[in-house]
Amino acid sequence: MSYVLYGANGSGSSVVEATLRELGVPYELRAVDVANHAQRGAAYTRINPSRKLPTLISPQGETLTESAAILLTLVERHPEAELLPPIGGPDRARALRWLLFVAGELYPVMELIDHPERFAGEGARAELRETALALWRQRWRLVEDELSEGPYLLGARFCVADIYLAALSRWDMPRAWRLEHLPKLERLADTVASRPRLRELWPRHFRG
Ligand SMILES: N[C@@H](CCC(=O)N[C@@H](CS)C(=O)NCC(=O)O)C(=O)O
């Protein structure tokens, strides 16, 4: 049995799919129709009770959720691909720091942008969304400030955090804005997108 990935184009499942491609492991993709809220339907809720993408089923039949945990599990189970630097060193710490920054500080803001109705009454939603959008961009600037000559987070060394950063930086920030305010991050994302194992996949998920 191969991995089974429940996902949708352009969503957080792109990160897991790109990682599976980098690992060179086979997987079956099962599309979840988020446009019609299939992630909230009974069938998908049975698979992932938090009713969010992505969900990855391992070849052993385990259900894996939470994108950062899925990435770390994949890295651990396919060590030969070296998608993280060796345990204990400074590069590993830096990669984990920013991987968890995406998971803990950035990704949750997207729910406020996409679903303000989950957090505020009708009258407060527009303002909440605007505030969340500003926070989203402000937090990406922290990533930008952290990047050096690149092209990756760890310089010349590619790691799984680069995929996470590249994919989520495609959301809710037009390319012109990114080029002006996040040029190093944009270079990182372009470099990830042009990697041999990703260049055919990337345009299916992201246009600009
Ligand atoms: N903490 C989760 C967040 C996942 C998430 O928010 N996924 C979005 C798609 S990118 C989703 O499924 N949204 C649908 C919804 O919230 O109804 C993770 O890291 O996997």
Estimate what percentage of residues fall within beta strands.
5-15%
Derived from helix and strand composition plus strand pairing, the structural class reads: alpha+beta
> Please, how many helices?
9
Low-confidence stretches: none
Mean pLDDT figure: 98
The biggest sheet amounts to: 4 strands, mixed
How many strand segments?
A: 4
CATH architecture level-2 label of the largest domain? Up-down Bundle
**Could you spell the SSE succession in H and E letters?**
EHEHEEHHHHHHH
Judging from the principal axes of the Cα atoms, what is the shape?
globular
Strand order of the largest sheet: 2-1-3-4
Small molecules bound in the structure, each named once: glutathione
Question: What is the helix content?
Answer: 40-55%
What is the CATH top level name of the largest domain?
A: Mainly Alpha
The CATH topology of the largest domain = Glutathione S-transferase Yfyf (Class Pi), Chain A, domain 2
What does this structure look like?
This protein is an alpha+beta fold and 208 residues long. The protein has two domains: 3-81, Glutaredoxin; 90-194, Glutathione S-transferase Yfyf (Class Pi), Chain A, domain 2 (Up-down Bundle), CATH 1.20.1050. Helix content is 51%, strand content 8%. The chain contains nine helices and four strands, in the order E-H-E-H-E-E-H-H-H-H-H-H-H. It has helices spanning 13-23, 42-47, 67-77, 90-114, 125-146, 160-168, 175-181, 183-193, 202-205; strands at residues 3-7, 27-31, 55-57, 63-65. Strands 2-1-3-4 form a four-stranded mixed β-sheet, covered by helices on one side. The N and C termini lie far apart (35 Å). The relative contact order is 0.13. The model has no long low-confidence stretch (mean pLDDT 98). The structure holds glutathione (GSH). Glutathione binds next to helix 4. Glutathione (GSH) is lined by residues 11-12, 34, 39, 51-54, 66-67, 103, 107, 111, 115.
